[in-house]
Amino acid sequence: QVQLVESGGGLVQAGGSLRLSCAASGRTFSSYAMGWFRQAPGKEREFVATITWVGGSTRYADSVKGRFTISRDYVKNMVYLQMNSVKPEDTAVYYCAAARAFYSDYSRYDYWGQGTQVTVSS
Length: 122
Hints:
Blueprint: E1 3-7, E2 10-13, E3 18-25, E4 33-39, E5 46-52, E6 58-60, E7 68-73, E8 78-83, E9 92-99, E10 109-112, E11 116-121
Parallel strand pairs: 2-11
Antiparallel strand pairs: 1-3, 3-8, 4-5, 4-9, 5-6, 7-8, 9-10, 9-11
């Protein structure tokens, strides 16, 4: 059984930084891409960033490009989202997910974590 567990969310002031972590377990993820998505109240789930497990290729949503960085540690089976220069509009529940290819479409992701709340105060 695949498990993805996010941590690191919380309250941060606008302009500050936060690092989210995702612990992956239950299978070998070498053929997967890992993604971060977010969902704000009343809005659809949206793509934030994705990274290939092998090679570390990345892709970002335009709204976070230059501010957020996705990374992975395949020895520890961890995926991270470093969030810098955060804005109030970054407030959302952030989800870690795994897919069999390098997708930005959330419907293509097979496994999901439970989410972690990020709140950015102005």
